[in-house]
Amino acid sequence: MSQAPHPPELAADRALALAFDVGGTSVRGAVVGAGDVSLAESRVATRTGPAVLDDIAQLGEELLAHLSVAARTRVTGVGVAFPGLVDTESGTSLKAVNLGLVDTPVAAPLAERLRLPVSVSHDTAAAAGAIWVDAGSPSSAFVAVLGTGVAGMTYVEGKPIVGASGQAGELGHLVVDPAGSACSCGLRGCVESRAGARRMLERYAAWGGDPRITGVAELVARTDHDPVAAQVWSEAITALADGFLAVGALLAPGQIILGGGVAEARGRLLEPLRDRMRERAGVTAVPPVRLSSLGARAGLVGAARLALASTGTGA
Ligand SMILES: [Zn+2]
To answer: Its Enzyme Commission number (predicted)?
Structure first.
């Protein structure tokens, strides 16, 4: 567990949130205060089935135990960014394929274990919302959350568009190469099958890459001297470019904002992506593309803001 130094704003009597981001590879937890600063952060590997709820609760208990008594009393709520289909009203996971959960209460068991009010949000909504606010809440934007999966949220006139099914912005399963490799969703050549973090690492390994490489940051750092890494990354960039051009053709957003762990590649993502979009745009106008500063913390920050907003203690 890492402990951040206590900056002055955390010494005040401001409310704190216990935040969780339940991802495909790890569950991240943090105690988050003003300015989105973490007092403590920790993570565990994601397990499937109901065990994931035990892991979240235990991580929360450990994070709370790590606080001083005074800080502990300032924690007013819990926010959980959860994958799949979520009923935010009841705090229930309706379907989380990757976690093997169907119709499973999330908020209730956590509230009982942690003795705090719990709010549950869809992970993309939480992360995209945090990225959007961090970017100055632009009236028109497409926010992409690039991590284990690839997802996004469209903002029009300052409001998120969730669509009739609630699944608007599901960029990851837009097919960009019908002859491409199989995706976890059953289709072929989806954006996520090329540009999702897990799939990039799987492709790198399958094509004979260095078996010691376990993270996308390491993969991206090798693209100058490792042709396999360069190929995997280039194909990911092409898939994202085609996906964003489709978004551009349909919605013409004022800007595209990139967040999530894969966006921590910064210039190694942004510059080739802009070039690839221009090369492949045809008649479609290429929207400005920029990076969020939140990176992999977007989900945690979004979950914390949700918890503070729903307990009426947000900034
Ligand atoms: Zn797919």
So the answer is: 2.7.1.2
